[in-house]
Amino acid sequence: MTSFRTLLLLSVLLLVFSLPAAALEKGDIAPDFELPNLSGKLVRLAQYRGRIVVLKLATTWCPTCRQQMEEIGKLADFLDDSDVVVLDVFLQDNESMVRDYLAGKALPKNFVPLLDDGQVRKAYNVYLIPRLLVIGPEFKIRRDGSLIMARELKKMINAIRQEKSD
Protein backbone atom coordinates (compact mmCIF):
# COMPACT_ATOMS: atom_id res chain seq x y z
CA MET A 1 0.00 0.00 0.00
CA THR A 2 2.86 2.41 0.78
CA SER A 3 4.36 2.03 -2.69
CA PHE A 4 0.94 2.77 -4.24
CA ARG A 5 0.69 6.03 -2.25
CA THR A 6 4.23 6.95 -3.22
CA LEU A 7 3.49 6.28 -6.88
CA LEU A 8 0.26 8.29 -6.65
CA LEU A 9 2.05 11.21 -4.99
CA LEU A 10 4.82 11.17 -7.58
CA SER A 11 2.23 11.11 -10.38
CA VAL A 12 0.41 14.13 -8.95
CA LEU A 13 3.67 16.05 -8.48
CA LEU A 14 4.75 15.24 -12.02
CA LEU A 15 1.43 16.52 -13.33
CA VAL A 16 1.64 19.76 -11.34
CA PHE A 17 5.24 20.50 -12.32
CA SER A 18 4.62 19.70 -15.97
CA LEU A 19 1.93 22.38 -16.26
CA PRO A 20 3.05 25.37 -18.29
CA ALA A 21 3.81 28.54 -16.31
CA ALA A 22 1.93 30.72 -18.79
CA ALA A 23 -1.74 30.78 -19.65
CA LEU A 24 -1.68 33.57 -22.24
CA GLU A 25 0.16 33.58 -25.53
CA LYS A 26 2.53 36.27 -26.70
CA GLY A 27 0.46 38.73 -28.75
CA ASP A 28 -2.83 38.12 -26.90
CA ILE A 29 -4.67 41.20 -25.68
CA ALA A 30 -4.29 41.50 -21.92
CA PRO A 31 -7.56 40.80 -20.09
CA ASP A 32 -8.70 44.00 -18.40
CA PHE A 33 -9.59 44.13 -14.72
CA GLU A 34 -10.49 46.64 -12.03
CA LEU A 35 -9.20 46.12 -8.50
CA PRO A 36 -8.78 48.22 -5.35
CA ASN A 37 -5.39 49.55 -4.36
CA LEU A 38 -4.37 49.70 -0.69
CA SER A 39 -6.38 52.89 -0.21
CA GLY A 40 -9.52 51.33 -1.68
CA LYS A 41 -9.36 53.33 -4.93
CA LEU A 42 -10.29 51.25 -7.98
CA VAL A 43 -7.55 50.86 -10.58
CA ARG A 44 -8.09 49.46 -14.09
CA LEU A 45 -5.40 47.86 -16.15
CA ALA A 46 -6.83 49.65 -19.23
CA GLN A 47 -5.97 53.07 -17.78
CA TYR A 48 -2.31 52.24 -18.53
CA ARG A 49 -2.85 51.53 -22.24
CA GLY A 50 -0.05 53.20 -24.18
CA ARG A 51 2.54 52.43 -21.49
CA ILE A 52 4.63 49.37 -20.72
CA VAL A 53 3.14 47.47 -17.78
CA VAL A 54 4.85 44.84 -15.66
CA LEU A 55 2.05 42.77 -14.13
CA LYS A 56 3.12 40.62 -11.19
CA LEU A 57 0.69 38.04 -9.84
CA ALA A 58 1.83 36.79 -6.46
CA THR A 59 1.32 36.52 -2.71
CA THR A 60 3.19 37.84 0.31
CA TRP A 61 4.06 34.39 1.65
CA CYS A 62 5.54 32.75 -1.47
CA PRO A 63 9.40 32.59 -1.35
CA THR A 64 9.79 32.80 -5.14
CA CYS A 65 7.35 35.73 -5.20
CA ARG A 66 9.64 37.49 -2.74
CA GLN A 67 12.59 36.77 -5.02
CA GLN A 68 10.69 38.28 -7.95
CA MET A 69 10.01 41.38 -5.86
CA GLU A 70 13.76 41.70 -5.17
CA GLU A 71 14.49 41.51 -8.90
CA ILE A 72 11.96 44.29 -9.57
CA GLY A 73 13.46 46.33 -6.72
CA LYS A 74 16.88 46.14 -8.42
CA LEU A 75 15.32 47.92 -11.41
CA ALA A 76 13.45 50.64 -9.49
CA ASP A 77 15.47 53.55 -10.96
CA PHE A 78 15.43 52.07 -14.46
CA LEU A 79 11.66 51.48 -14.29
CA ASP A 80 11.13 55.06 -13.10
CA ASP A 81 13.31 56.49 -15.87
CA SER A 82 11.50 54.32 -18.43
CA ASP A 83 8.02 55.31 -17.18
CA VAL A 84 7.10 51.64 -16.72
CA VAL A 85 4.13 50.83 -14.49
CA VAL A 86 4.41 47.88 -12.11
CA LEU A 87 1.04 46.46 -11.06
CA ASP A 88 1.48 43.93 -8.27
CA VAL A 89 -1.71 41.91 -7.85
CA PHE A 90 -1.81 40.13 -4.50
CA LEU A 91 -3.94 37.03 -4.97
CA GLN A 92 -4.55 35.81 -1.43
CA ASP A 93 -3.61 38.63 0.89
CA ASN A 94 -5.44 41.38 2.70
CA GLU A 95 -4.45 45.03 2.91
CA SER A 96 -2.64 44.69 6.24
CA MET A 97 -0.55 41.75 5.02
CA VAL A 98 0.44 43.63 1.87
CA ARG A 99 1.36 46.82 3.76
CA ASP A 100 3.56 44.81 6.16
CA TYR A 101 5.17 42.97 3.23
CA LEU A 102 5.97 46.16 1.29
CA ALA A 103 7.33 48.12 4.27
CA GLY A 104 10.95 49.10 3.68
CA LYS A 105 11.19 47.66 0.15
CA ALA A 106 12.77 49.56 -2.75
CA LEU A 107 9.84 50.21 -5.06
CA PRO A 108 9.54 52.10 -8.33
CA LYS A 109 7.46 55.28 -8.11
CA ASN A 110 4.96 53.77 -10.57
CA PHE A 111 4.41 50.72 -8.35
CA VAL A 112 0.75 49.97 -7.68
CA PRO A 113 -0.19 47.17 -5.28
CA LEU A 114 -3.67 45.74 -5.88
CA LEU A 115 -5.86 43.30 -3.98
CA ASP A 116 -7.43 40.59 -6.10
CA ASP A 117 -11.05 39.65 -5.44
CA GLY A 118 -10.74 36.56 -7.64
CA GLN A 119 -11.28 38.24 -11.00
CA VAL A 120 -7.59 38.34 -11.96
CA ARG A 121 -7.02 34.79 -10.81
CA LYS A 122 -9.88 33.74 -13.08
CA ALA A 123 -9.16 36.01 -16.08
CA TYR A 124 -5.47 35.07 -16.13
CA ASN A 125 -6.07 31.41 -15.19
CA VAL A 126 -3.54 31.60 -12.34
CA TYR A 127 -2.42 28.25 -11.01
CA LEU A 128 1.29 28.88 -10.42
CA ILE A 129 2.93 31.84 -8.72
CA PRO A 130 4.77 34.05 -9.10
CA ARG A 131 3.67 34.97 -12.55
CA LEU A 132 5.12 37.96 -14.31
CA LEU A 133 3.64 39.40 -17.47
CA VAL A 134 4.99 42.23 -19.57
CA ILE A 135 2.29 44.10 -21.45
CA GLY A 136 3.29 46.37 -24.30
CA PRO A 137 1.87 49.84 -24.98
CA GLU A 138 -0.53 48.32 -27.52
CA PHE A 139 -2.00 46.26 -24.63
CA LYS A 140 -0.60 42.97 -25.96
CA ILE A 141 1.14 40.33 -23.90
CA ARG A 142 4.88 40.37 -24.58
CA ARG A 143 5.81 37.88 -21.86
CA ASP A 144 3.88 35.54 -19.59
CA GLY A 145 5.89 33.31 -17.33
CA SER A 146 7.39 32.63 -13.97
CA LEU A 147 10.41 34.23 -12.31
CA ILE A 148 12.53 36.55 -14.46
CA MET A 149 15.85 38.05 -13.45
CA ALA A 150 16.33 41.84 -13.44
CA ARG A 151 18.83 41.76 -16.32
CA GLU A 152 16.40 39.91 -18.62
CA LEU A 153 13.44 42.10 -17.66
CA LYS A 154 15.47 45.24 -18.38
CA LYS A 155 16.54 43.84 -21.76
CA MET A 156 12.92 43.08 -22.66
CA ILE A 157 11.69 46.53 -21.64
CA ASN A 158 14.48 48.22 -23.61
CA ALA A 159 13.51 46.21 -26.70
CA ILE A 160 9.87 47.31 -26.36
CA ARG A 161 10.94 50.94 -25.85
CA GLN A 162 13.12 50.72 -28.96
CA GLU A 163 10.16 49.43 -31.01
CA LYS A 164 8.00 52.27 -29.71
CA SER A 165 10.56 54.88 -30.77
CA ASP A 166 11.04 53.43 -34.29
Automatic annotation (TrEMBL):
Keywords: Signal. One of its GO terms (molecular function) is antioxidant activity. It holds the Pfam family AhpC-TSA. PROSITE patterns: THIOREDOXIN_2. It comes from the Bacteria. InterPro entries: AhpC/TSA, Thioredoxin-like_sf, Thioredoxin_domain, Thioredoxin_ResA/DsbE_sf. The keyword Signal applies. Residues 1-23 form the signal peptide. The keyword Signal applies. Residues 24-162 form the Thioredoxin domain. PANTHER family: THIOL:DISULFIDE INTERCHANGE PROTEIN DSBE (PTHR42852), THIOREDOXIN-LIKE PROTEIN HI_1115 (PTHR42852:SF17). This is Peroxiredoxin. It comes from Geothermobacter ehrlichii.
